[in-house]
Write a structure and sequence with these properties.
By secondary structure, the chain is of the alpha+beta class. The chain has five helices and seven strands.
Length: 128
């Protein structure tokens, strides 16, 4: 293992993004901060650095523990970083909020039948 690697390559190797292009795009777009600073995709990351990654509506706060130049299995990729306990708790809370919100906006289980459609049409045309 070497001592430093490009941030986009590390994000790809640690399996935060599926391709290096997506990782580079996220870094360029300000979705990834290194030690609380916005960086470019070519910036070198080394063990001990802290990263804040915004992805899919979730925020990951991780500390870099290791460097891999190649993309390895997920079990090995998880050894490259350590996520803070507050980050894990915040992500679980956000997931619960999203789950409850999706349950509340759930529509009817079926399409309206002919009679119900007539009532809907009559109701919506009432204001005309």
């Amino acid at each position: 293992m070497s001592e430093s690697i490009r941030i986009d390559k590390w994000l790809w190797a640690a399996r935060f993004f599926k391709t290096r292009a997506l990782a580079a795009e996220a870094v360029s777009g300000g979705k990834v901060h290194l030690n609380d600073n916005r960086v470019k995709p070519g910036r070198e990351v080394k063990a001990g650095d802290s990263l804040t990654i915004h992805r899919d509506g979730y925020t990951y706060k991780v500390t870099v523990l290791g460097i891999n130049k190649q993309r390895r299995p997920a079990s090995e990729a998880q050894l490259l970083y350590e996520e803070s306990a507050e980050s894990v708790a915040a992500r679980q809370e956000q997931a619960e909020i999203q789950r409850l919100a999706s349950a509340m906006r759930q529509g009817p289980d079926r399409r309206p039948n002919k009679r119900e459609r007539r009532h809907i049409v009559k109701f919506t045309r009432k204001g005309e």
